[in-house]
Every structure is written in structure tokens, then in C-alpha cells.
From TrEMBL:
Keywords: Hydrolase, Nucleotide-binding
Signal peptide extent: none
Lineage of the species this protein comes from: Eukaryota, Viridiplantae, Streptophyta, Embryophyta, Tracheophyta
Name of this protein: Putative small GTPase superfamily, P-loop containing nucleoside triphosphate hydrolase
InterPro entries: P-loop_NTPase, Small_GTPase, Small_GTPase_Tem1/Spg1
GO molecular function: GTP binding; GTPase activity
Pfam families: Ras
Transmembrane segments: none
Keyword Transport part of the UniProt annotation: no
């Protein structure tokens, strides 16, 4: 009897051990299958949560030391391209900024962003239907500022992305093609859509393809300048004419945004001369 009891207990323990081994194997198989999904989810979560925090960020005025070897205009825009990772979420020195881009199709929005963030960052961008996210990290007096730029495609299918792109954005760039009057006329609609979801973001009106614009007849240039300035005043927006091809005013626009957000001692000079890249505010 004692021998049979020992055999019975041993058999039961072996059965329990086998069930545990099978359970571990099943769990490991499931983990292997979802590992890719997990990595993908963390990637999207790192992009979206960092750029769309629920509470508005509080920004401090950045002080400047006179010992800096850079001029004021250059000191706060020392730039470094980097990829956002999970360590940034817990870094108190990282300030996250969200910037939205709106405008018609084929006006150079994505080219404009790539000129600013660089080709390497463009390769690491997160692309969704009707939406393209790109990052750039700036170093300002030792503080790290991460700009997440939400580029909304200009077709009708992308209209559903506007709420997500504009929510919590600190600046909204409304863009048009300087050589296309129809895209200029449409900026009012884009601005109205943005304001439905964000009442406080800094508005900036940007005319692209300035290098093509200067080839237009002078009277047509004057008409476009006049109309663009009128729209900018109605939006209470700063107006920039730019060219991604020749890097005209691309970096200056983002410098202007940083100066506005952080009360930095740098301002742009107004330029209203027809035939030159307009800056009006």
C-alpha cells in the first residue's frame, strides 16, 4: 500500500510539472507572437503621448549667459537631430512642443518640414493615412526641446486628422503656394478648421515656393502680397514667404516660434518689399 501511495504521489507531481511546462511554453509562444505588436505600439505611444499630453505644458523663460560665444540669434537655436525614445518621457529637462501644418495638397508642406528636420529624421518619420509626424530636438541653454511636427495632408480624406493634429498644438502653420491663388484663397478654411479644435495656438501664415513666385509679373506679385497680408491680419497671424529649395525663412520661422513661446530676446525684422521674402506681423 505504501509503495502504491508513493507511486501515486509521484505521478501526480509529474502531471503537475508537465502542466506547468506546457503553460510556460504557451505563454512564451504568445509573447513571441505579440512582440512585434508591442514594439510597434510603444513606438506610436512614444510619438503620440509625447506630442499630445493632456495638460498644457508650463514653460519657463530661458535665461542667457553673456559668456556664451554665440550671438543671441544663434545661441538659442543650437540644433541636434535625434530619435525620441522612452527615456525622454521621464527626463525633466525635455520640453515637448507640438506644431501643426495645414494647407492644400502639393504646396510643399512636407518638403518644408524635411528641409527643417533633415533627411535622416524624415526617414524615421511616422506616417499614417493623411498624417505625417516628424521630430526635431533643439538645445536651448542646456535645455532639450523636442518639436513634434504634425503634417496633415491636404486632401478631403485627411480632414478627419485635423482634430488630432491641432489638439494641444502650440503653433499652427497655415500654408499656401505663392504661385497658386486658389491655395491662398483656401487658407481661410484651413484656419477656421484649426480654430475649431485649438483656440490658443500661435497662428503663422506661410507662402511657399518663393523662388517660383519671384518669376511672376510684378503686378501679380503685388496682388498676392496684398491679399496674403490681408488674410494674415484677419487671422492675427505672422506672415512669412519661404522657399524650401533655397532654405529661405525655413529656420527663421521655427526660431520665431521658439522666441514667442519662451520669451526669447530675438525678433524678426519686418520686410514688406515686393520681390523679397515678405515678413509681416
Amino acid at each position: 500500500m505504501a509503495k502504491n501511495k508513493i507511486i501515486h504521489q509521484t505521478t501526480r507531481k509529474m502531471s503537475q510539472l508537465c502542466r506547468k511546462v506546457v503553460d510556460v511554453n504557451v505563454r512564451w509562444g504568445v509573447l513571441q507572437r505579440v512582440s512585434f505588436v508591442g514594439h510597434f505600439f510603444r513606438f506610436i505611444w512614444g510619438r503620440l503621448v509625447v506630442c499630445s499630453v493632456g495638460k498644457p505644458s508650463k514653460y519657463r523663460r530661458l535665461s542667457f549667459r553673456d559668456s556664451s560665444p554665440f550671438p543671441v540669434e544663434e545661441r538659442f537655436m543650437q540644433e541636434h537631430n535625434t530619435v525620441m525614445d522612452s527615456d525622454y518621457d521621464t527626463d525633466s529637462d525635455l520640453v515637448n512642443l507640438k506644431i501643426s501644418l495645414l494647407g492644400d495638397c502639393d504646396i510643399g508642406k512636407t518638403t518644408f518640414v524635411i528641409k527643417y528636420v533633415g533627411n535622416e529624421q524624415e526617414k524615421k518619420s511616422l506616417q499614417m493615412e493623411g498624417l505625417n509626424l516628424m521630430d526635431k530636438t533643439l538645445f536651448v541653454e542646456g535645455a532639450r526641446i523636442s518639436c513634434c511636427i504634425w503634417d496633415v495632408a491636404g486632401d478631403k480624406r485627411s480632414l478627419d486628422q485635423i482634430p488630432m493634429a491641432c489638439k494641444d498644438a502650440l503653433a499652427v502653420l497655415i500654408m499656401f503656394d505663392l504661385t497658386s491663388r486658389s491655395t491662398l484663397n483656401n487658407v481661410v478654411g484651413w484656419y477656421s478648421e484649426a480654430r475649431k479644435w485649438n483656440k490658443t495656438a500661435i497662428p503663422i501664415l506661410i507662402g511657399t515656393k518663393f523662388d517660383d513666385f519671384v518669376r511672376l509679373p510684378p503686378d501679380l506679385q503685388w496682388t498676392i502680397v496684398t491679399q496674403a497680408r490681408a488674410y494674415a491680419r484677419a487671422m492675427n497671424a505672422t506672415l512669412f514667404f519661404s522657399s524650401a529649395t533655397h532654405n529661405i525663412n525655413v529656420n527663421k520661422i521655427f526660431k520665431f516660434i521658439m522666441a514667442k513661446l519662451f520669451n526669447l530676446p530675438w525678433t524678426v525684422e519686418r520686410n514688406l518689399r515686393v520681390g523679397e521674402p515678405i515678413i509681416d506681423f
